[in-house]
Design a protein that fits this description.
It is globular and about 65 Å long. It has two domains: 70 residues, Helix Hairpins, CATH 1.10.287; 145 residues, Histidine kinase-like ATPase, C-terminal domain (Heat Shock Protein 90, 2-Layer Sandwich), CATH 3.30.565. Strand 4 and strand 5 form a beta hairpin. A five-stranded mixed sheet has the order 2-4-5-7-6, with helices on one face. With 234 residues, the protein is α+β, with helices and mostly antiparallel strands. The chain is built from six helices and seven strands; from the N terminus they run ααβαββαββααββ.
Length: 234
Amino acid sequence: LQEQVIASEKLSTLGILGTGFAHEIKNPLTAIIGLIQLLQKPDIDLNTQENYLNIISKELERIKDLTNQFASLGKPTLFKRKSCDIDVLIKNTVALVKNHALLHNIEIKYENKKNSLKTEVDESQIKQVLINLLQNAIDAMQEGGEITVSLDFNEETEQIKIMVQDNGVGMTAKELESISKPFFSTKERGIGLGLHISYQIIESHGGKIRVNSIKDKGSTFTLYLPAYSQQEGI
């Protein structure tokens, strides 16, 4: 009986990990498929073609990194922290999601209140968080609309502040209480792992996520990151 319980727990864990992997790998795959479709247009110019191919290459590298992360579960994980210009990271991420948003009649605007903000982060993981938030915002705006991404810096707390604001369906107070829990989703076909993983990534970087939302009005996700790395990794 004990062996059966252990085997059952192993299968359950394997199922959870498989679901998480499928969820996280879906975003870069969706971007790659969309860009390949654009590359097949007969009137595409060489510069645009090269730009799309560069993005596809980077997204394939991200899939490789995700695969390595899941293959290394259970082992101590060291973040690939390096100096990063957050402004450039956000611009690149917005550019990646922008075409997908336009297909849903959604415009993404980026506001930078500081010329340049640098800190030490794992770029791939922070990019993963931003894509999750932008994709959630797109999914919440079935009638189209506008997403605003802004970058600022709090001098008193020495924290980088990134806001992702939408005017979508919003959430109730009860839904907000469960937003960071695994397998909780407000989407009809949502898996409920994207935000849970995002919270873990930001907290592991010494930061935090705060959410404000009003039902039928929209949601605002605010990421706070330290100006400098507070830990070497986990």
